[in-house]
C-alpha cells in the first residue's frame, strides 16, 4: 500500500536520505581502494586495513541495503507520524527500523575497531598500546551488548513491529 494519501510531503527528506546513500556508496570505495593500494605498495597491510575492509564491505552492504530499504521505507510511510499510517505500513516500517538498528551498530563498531587498530600500528609506547587494547575491548563488548539488546529489545522479538501482540518491550 502506498502512502500517497497521507497529508504532508516528506519528499525533501527522502531525497536527502537517498542522496546521502548514493554519495557514500560512491566515495567509500575510493577511500578504501586508495588505502589498500598505498599499503600494498609499501607491503604493510595490517589488521587495521583488513578490519577497515570488513567495515567497508559491511557498510557497503549496509548502504546498498540502506538505499533499497530507504526507498522501501518511504513507500511505507517512514517519516510520517505513526498515527497517520495504516497498520500494515506501520508494521513494515517498524521491521525496517529494527533492521537498521542492528546493521548500523555493527558498522559503527567495525569502523571504530579499524581506527583503534591503526593507532596500535603507529604508536609504539607500551602504555598507549595497553590503553588501545582496553578501548578495543570496551568497543567490542559495547557493540555486542547493544546489538543483543537491539535484537531482543522486545519479548517476543516480533513485538518490536507487532505492537498489539502480547509481550513487553524495554525502552531503549
TrEMBL record:
Membrane topology recorded in Swiss-Prot or TrEMBL: Multi-pass membrane protein
GO cellular component terms attached to this protein's record: membrane
Domain Rhodopsin: 35-170
Transmembrane segments: 20-38, 50-73, 130-152
Keyword Transmembrane helix in record: yes
Pfam families: Fung_rhodopsin
InterPro entries in the cross-refs: Rhodopsin_dom_fungi, SAT4-like
Localization (cell): Membrane
UniProt main location, coarse: membrane
Record keywords, A-Z: Membrane, Transmembrane, Transmembrane helix
PANTHER family named in the record: INTEGRAL MEMBRANE PROTEIN (PTHR33048:SF55), PTH11-LIKE INTEGRAL MEMBRANE PROTEIN (AFU_ORTHOLOGUE AFUA_5G11245) (PTHR33048)
Family, per entry: Belongs to the SAT4 family.
Protein name: Integral membrane protein
UniProt lineage: Eukaryota, Fungi, Dikarya, Ascomycota, Pezizomycotina
